[in-house]
């Protein structure tokens, strides 16, 4: 409670126009963190602001947070996810900072405070500014919209499986593009879209950002932006259920020598030359195919054969909740039915909710007579939370759920998936919840699967033989590497990193091991990053991992509890502290610089959902840490 009071005194919270006007009347310099209601203010900068306030100790320096959704003066900032800091002096806008460049933020605060003091002390004139970035954003949106409207949409049946294929600059430069295209069609693949264009360096860097940690990344970016490529959307005439796998089989291994040895008839074996120059690209999996498709063909969309009156269906995500008793007794059957219904389970976790969290998530039902039963059920065990994806996901999942009143559902919707798991004399829908709209879906998915950062470490025992394989696993599982560094820890640094284990008998042995050679430190970014990385690592003890999670990193690369190849933060608090220790205060704010997202607030305070059932890797271990 003391910590909250301290934060409240550091930053004034502005949630309406009247408070906004009062804030502008404050004497001195006020730095305002403008945020959106659904995501909340940027908690990650609080430590930086507190540090600045303590160092300067100036009564003329003020900090505030302002909710764009409820302050009339901030209407133009609504819907903007990028961190925005507005500097006000004498009620006038004197500076704007977009993004969370921590050194720049600190420097601007010092400079603008000095300028404001000069105005107040010497009566100088303030240099008032306009937020040109906001105008630039609006202009860019208009241009993008105009280009999108002028460009014909690429429409294909939703039943088709598709993937992105690129004939790379090396094959195009050698005049092989048309020959490769003929072989693609002869092999039974259907080309749904085809463009010849050169990727810019910025586009290439963004397209391959999941490989940023690889040593060849810069060479890859330069090569892919060195000349024109042929970019294709590929399907199969026979509507294969997994064209991604078929395409990757057709193009062969990425390594040319391996391709020539193992798949001599593949495209890479025939047209590749060396290393990066392997002629063609293919998406690694269905999820990556979707991301690449959206990146390269923003006008591509799927159309259901049932579309009428020009109405279209798009790939969407929705949140599904399976109540504890059904999740416990029928979990596998539920998941099988979901997949049979055409959904992809994009994210999945079990969560033990507190009473307060249930009240916050289901706030609209709190006054209803059925809420006590709902509350009791929802806190009786882990809830299975799923982010489901497919065309028309929101409406389709609601149809599958059936009606909330199961007795009525049995009469009117005998095919309803929900009726299959209904409990006699129980008014609670067994599938419990489905998002009401696309907006609700994304907000609710963020509730259960928050965008997070975690610290990952490849330990000294795994660096020489397994580093590349571990990095491949990181990228294959959708993590973005925000920052990384390779280092040999000093004894003092290792002792500070593992200070919580200082009194344990294995502490000196642990410190000695962690200083024995280089290790790689990475900041990983992803929805649900902390739990997902711990699941990939597996249990702390490699022997246990081999029995329970044989495909985990520790099962494959660890030898004992100490030499278990990798480390991952166990909670959000530990992640923040470990990132600060390794990368410093500046890098601890990297989540802001990476993609502009902040901590997610659904209702009231941001919720910590790291209290669910144990994940592979467990929590804080009493043995040598993970």
From TrEMBL:
GO biological process: CTP biosynthetic process; GTP biosynthetic process; UTP biosynthetic process
Entry-linked PROSITE patterns: NDPK_LIKE, THIOREDOXIN_1, THIOREDOXIN_2
Stretches the record annotates as Disordered: 590-626
Gene Ontology annotations for the cellular component aspect, listed alphabetically: cytoplasm; lamellipodium; nucleus; ruffle
InterPro entries named among the record's database cross-references: NDK-like_dom, NDK-like_dom_sf, Nucleoside_diP_kinase, Thioredoxin-like_sf, Thioredoxin_CS, Thioredoxin_domain, TXND_domain-containing
Chain ranges of the Thioredoxin domain: 1-115
Localization terms from the record: Cell projection, Lamellipodium; Cell projection, Ruffle; Cytoplasm; Nucleus
Keywords, ordered alphabetically: Cell cycle, Cytoplasm, Metal-binding, Nucleus
Active-site residue numbers: 281, 433, 567
Binding site for ATP: 459, 506, 534, 540, 554, 564
GO molecular function: metal ion binding; nucleoside diphosphate kinase activity
Superkingdom field: Eukaryota
Gene3D superfamilies linked to this entry: Glutaredoxin (3.40.30.10), Nucleoside diphosphate kinase-like domain (3.30.70.141)
Positions in coiled-coil regions: none
Main localization, broad class: other
Function: Major role in the synthesis of nucleoside triphosphates other than ATP.
Family: Belongs to the NDK family.
Protein name: Nucleoside diphosphate kinase B
Organism: Xyrichtys novacula (Pearly razorfish)
């Amino acid at each position: 409670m003391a910590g909250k009071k301290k934060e409240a005194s550091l930053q004034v919270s502005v949630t309406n126009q009247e408070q906004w006007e009062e804030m502008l009347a404050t004497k001195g310099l006020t730095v305002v963190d403008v945020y959106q209601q659904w995501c909340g203010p940027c908690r990650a900068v609080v430590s930086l602001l507190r540090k600045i306030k303590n160092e300067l100790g100036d009564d003329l320096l003020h900090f505030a947070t302002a909710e764009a959704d409820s302050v009339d003066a901030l209407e133009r900032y609504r819907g903007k996810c990028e961190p925005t800091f507005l500097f006000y002096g004498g009620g006038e806008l004197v500076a704007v900072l977009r993004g969370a460049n921590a050194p720049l933020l600190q420097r601007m605060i010092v400079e603008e405070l000095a300028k404001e003091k000069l105005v107040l002390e010497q009566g100088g004139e303030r240099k008032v500014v306009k937020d040109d970035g906001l105008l630039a954003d609006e202009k860019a949106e208009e241009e993008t919209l105009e280009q999108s409207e002028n460009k014909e949409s690429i429409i294909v049946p939703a039943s088709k499986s598709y993937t992105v294929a690129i004939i790379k600059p090396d094959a195009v430069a050698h005049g092989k593009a048309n020959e490769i295209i003929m072989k693609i069609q002869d092999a039974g693949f259907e080309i749904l879209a085809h463009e010849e264009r050169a990727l810019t360096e910025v586009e290439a860097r963004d397209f391959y950002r999941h490989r940023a940690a690889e040593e060849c990344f810069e060479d890859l970016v330069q090569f892919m932006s060195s000349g024109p490529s042929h970019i294709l959307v590929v399907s199969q005439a026979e509507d294969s259920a997994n064209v991604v796998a078929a395409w990757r089989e057709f193009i062969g291994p990425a390594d040319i020598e391996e391709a020539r040895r193992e798949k001599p008839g593949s495209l890479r074996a025939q047209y590749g030359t060396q290393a990066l120059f392997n002629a063609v690209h293919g998406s690694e999996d269905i999820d990556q195919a979707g991301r690449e498709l959206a990146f390269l063909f923003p006008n591509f969309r799927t159309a259901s054969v049932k579309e009428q009156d020009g109405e279209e269906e798009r790939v969407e995500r929705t949140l599904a909740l399976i109540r504890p008793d059904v999740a416990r007794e029928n979990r596998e059957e539920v998941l099988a039915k979901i997949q049979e219904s055409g959904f992809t389970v994009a994210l999945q976790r079990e969560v033990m909710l507190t009473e307060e969290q249930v009240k916050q998530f289901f706030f609209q039902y709190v006054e209803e007579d059925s809420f006590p039963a709902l509350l009791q059920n929802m806190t009786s065990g882990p809830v299975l939370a799923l982010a489901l994806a497919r065309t028309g996901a929101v409406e389709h999942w609601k149809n599958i759920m059936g009606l909330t009143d199961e007795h009525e559902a049995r009469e009117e919707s005998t095919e309803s998936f929900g009726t299959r798991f209904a409990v006699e004399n129980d008014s609670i829908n067994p599938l419990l919840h489905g998002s009401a709209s696309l907006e609700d879906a994304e907000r609710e998915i963020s509730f259960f699967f928050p965008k997070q950062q975690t610290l990952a470490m490849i330990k000294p025992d795994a660096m020489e033989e397994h580093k590349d394989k571990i990095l491949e696993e990181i990228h294959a599982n959708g993590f973005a590497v925000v920052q990384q560094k390779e280092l040999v820890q000093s004894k003092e640094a290792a002792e500070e990193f593992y200070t919580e284990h200082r009194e344990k008998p294995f502490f000196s042995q642990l410190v000695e091991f962690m200083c024995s050679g280089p290790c790689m430190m990475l900041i990983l970014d992803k929805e649900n990053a902390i739990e997902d990385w711990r699941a990939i690592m597996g249990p702390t003890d490699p022997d246990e991992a081999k029995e329970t999670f044989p495909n985990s990193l520790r099962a494959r690369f660890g030898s004992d509890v100490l030499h278990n190849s990798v480390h991952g933060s166990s909670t959000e608090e530990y992640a923040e502290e470990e990132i600060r220790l390794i990368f410093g205060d500046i890098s601890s704010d990297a989540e802001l610089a990476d993609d502009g997202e902040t901590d997610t607030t659904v209702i009231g305070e941001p919720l910590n959902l790291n209290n669910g059932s144990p994940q592979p890797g467990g929590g804080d271990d009493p043995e040598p840490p993970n």
